[in-house]
Design goal:
Layout: E1 2-8, H1 26-31, E2 35-41, E3 55-58, E4 64-65, E5 76-77, H2 83-91, E6 98-101, H3 103-111, E7 115-129, E8 132-133, E9 147-158, E10 163-169, E11 172-178, E12 183-186, H4 205-215
Parallel strand pairs: 1-2, 1-3, 3-6, 4-5, 6-12
Antiparallel strand pairs: 7-9, 8-10, 10-11, 11-12
Length: 217
């Protein structure tokens, strides 16, 4: 069984090994592919991973990455606060898959020299469509158009170095893929795929996306 490290990027820390309720459907999805999900807060990252990893997921967060705290006095955080995550990723084997979700997607962009920007209006929808997308293995088998939960007030305006844009929506960049490494960032929330989980009524495309990613590990 492979171990998938789930890095919790929220500002508050849960007890070690505890997953936030919003990700409650992810462990079973991971287990269905023969892997184990191991949650850890970004400030509790181990100096060694206690054995080989199969992949890494970087979670969403209510935090927003800013250049100056006055841009978002309530939820803004500087990239330097996540230096531990940057160092951790730098020390990983280069070909270890990494998936960044929402804030994780923005973190990959910002840490790679990309640019973020505040949206004119926050996006909070359960069934938001992609407008255009490449024929990417992770997007195969989805609806036409693919639909996902979206919840964000900031977005990636320019991807980080060596990332190319794979999918867009009316909000802008929805998915990027690194040109050299198996690293992917998505603005949408594939972890919300069980329609019965309130307040999110997730779309089945989220589960298909995660299945596609897990099959490639």
């Amino acid at each position: 069984m492979g171990r998938i490290l789930f890095i919790d990027m929220w500002p508050d820390e849960l007890p070690q090994g505890v997953l936030r309720p919003r990700y409650a459907d992810v462990p079973a999805c991971v287990q269905a592919h023969g892997h184990e999900l191991v949650p850890v807060h970004h400030r509790q990252l181990p100096s060694d991973t206690q054995g080989p990893l199969q992949a890494v997921i970087i979670s969403g967060s209510r935090t927003n990455l800013v250049d100056e705290l006055r841009e978002d006095p309530q939820d803004g955080r500087l990239l330097s606060e996540f230096a531990g995550v940057e160092h951790f990723l730098e020390d990983l084997p280069k070909m270890l898959p990494v998936l960044g979700i929402c804030f994780g997607h923005q973190f990959l962009a910002k840490s790679g020299g990309g640019r973020l920007e505040r949206m004119a209006r926050e996006r909070d929808e359960n069934d938001f469509p992609l407008r255009e997308a490449e024929d990417d293995p992770l997007l195969r088998g989805l609806g036409t158009p693919a639909r996902f939960v979206e919840s964000h007030g900031w977005r990636v305006a320019e991807p980080g170095a060596h990332y190319r844009i794979v999918a867009r929506s009316d909000d802008g960049i929805e998915m990027v893929r690194h040109e050299r490494l198996p690293r992917v960032g998505v603005q949408f929330h594939p972890e919300y795929f069980a329609r019965q989980v309130a307040p999110r009524q997730g779309h089945a495309d989220g589960r298909i996306f995660l299945d596609n990613w897990l099959r490639q590990l």
